[in-house]
Amino acid sequence: MTEHSITPKDQRKIFFQKILSITRRDIELRAFPSRRRIFTRNLNIIEKFIKENKVDNLYFGVYTRKGGGTKEHVKEIYCYFADVDFKEYQGGEAEAWERLNAFINNTGLKPSFIIHSGYGLHVYWFLNCIIEPSEKVEATLRGIAKHLGADISACELARILRVTGTFNYKYNDRKPVSIIEHNDISYDPEAFNQFEDKETYKNNPLRELFKGVPDGQRNVSLTRLIGSLVNDDLSYEECLEFAYQWNERNNPPETDLREIERTVKSIFEKHHRELSNCRYKTEPSKHETIKLIRVIGISDFLSLELPPRENIFAPWLPTQGLAMVYGPRGVGKTHFAMGVAVAVASGGRFLKWEASKPFGVLYLDGEMPAVVVQERFSNIIVSSEKEPIATLNIVTPDLQEFGMPDLSTLQGQAAVDPYLDGISLVIVDNISTLCRVGRENEGESWLPVQEWGLRLRSKHISVLFVHHAGKGGFQRGTSKREDVLDTTISLKRPGDYMPDEGARFEVHFEKARNIHGDDVKAFETKLITVNGIQQWTLKMLEESLTERIANLLNDGIPQNEIAELLGVAKGTVSKHKRKAQSQELLRNNG
Description:
Number of helices: 18
Shape: elongated
Distance between the termini: 96 Å
Radius of gyration: 30 Å
Largest sheet: 9 strands, mixed
Strand content: 15-25%
């Protein structure tokens, strides 16, 4: 049956229903460049994932998995497949079809599905039973590819291929991925024994991705691996993702990920320079440089179904939000950040704010001893009305063998990336200890961290940065930090603060995008403990200042000294004195 007018959603339904009718394990779906992924057997969840990531390149694991997406997690073989890449044929697409039709005529093996991937064909032959994953399966895949002139390097058990009914965004273009032919045919596995190609299988460089490489052979192995992937027309981001996975399997892994990134970039650029001289190249200008941006027309952009922006922590921290809280040393910034973390992960409250539901949190602590972090989180959770339901993961220096990551480097950012699945909020406590390259007062030093924050935002992850105040009371260093932020909160010590009071501070909104009115009015809060339970007292700053001035006047302190003590104007003291008198807060109303 040839598919012409069937909708993309129905194409996906036909394809995935066929797989689910044969298998019992989960289908893996991945989105690039966001690197989101899910494992599921639920068609509704598959559709939801595709809708939420529709501007990404979408892939699925050809073979079903259990527990992960690598070769050892593959559990069921229900088909054989071939990845037919048009650029591998001198005659392009026409020659690719000739080879496929000749293969069908010679073998009688008509494909169950032929899917046009935008720049090639994905061909599937479904089996009439499930068989076990084995080296023989990969050898058979390679034999099929060899007969077709298809991509040999694509023939491995953990292979991911594009999802039908989506779009291929390669080369700054948008090509539909769609079913060309669909036939309700299945085959006995023995029908494919004739294609087993053991020698080709043994020489496959992609095997090294799954078994790791000893020190001393890694440069050669990584070069072969990435060379194979770029020949398979994978994007730079996809090649880099494979390289990270390859590195994790080495013992020990390479800790300097910048070297891996340089190698991948070098091979990728070299490949596309050489491609400009290939005799079958059809679009020279598209391959001479790496193009890592997407451009979308206004009509397509306005028709995108983008998820609405909701509040993670109402009203000042939305999804995809970038925020910063800063204050002087010892004011209570970490109490503030940890309170936010527990409230967000539990769907609870902190101070005057509330999470709309539980969201996953990754808390990066850059300076405190682990035992103190443990004690503080324990006290907060014991004192909270709700316990964390969503993920609340902690990274702290005492538990790190190689030290804390430096988030101002690609290496440090890459060290965090594997732990972002299921995370909606990353808390960086604090900038000084976790962003160490460059000088704080240089705007350019902040740019790598800003880019990282924007990348997280594109993945629907919010970030709360914790930072120190300088001697003048403003956030320390370059003001460029605030350019892309939605919210900036300043914590200040009250003028009459005493060291024995512990965490007591004023909360001021200095930047508040899309919130206003009472939501951004300053207030004072203090941490107290009653019967072992922590509580935060709250007073609006106007109310608090009136009470403090009344108390000082009752103690006989002159108005000019009160103004100096609280850091306010003498007129402010007079105004609040009159207010205190009207509220009968003064012992001597005169």
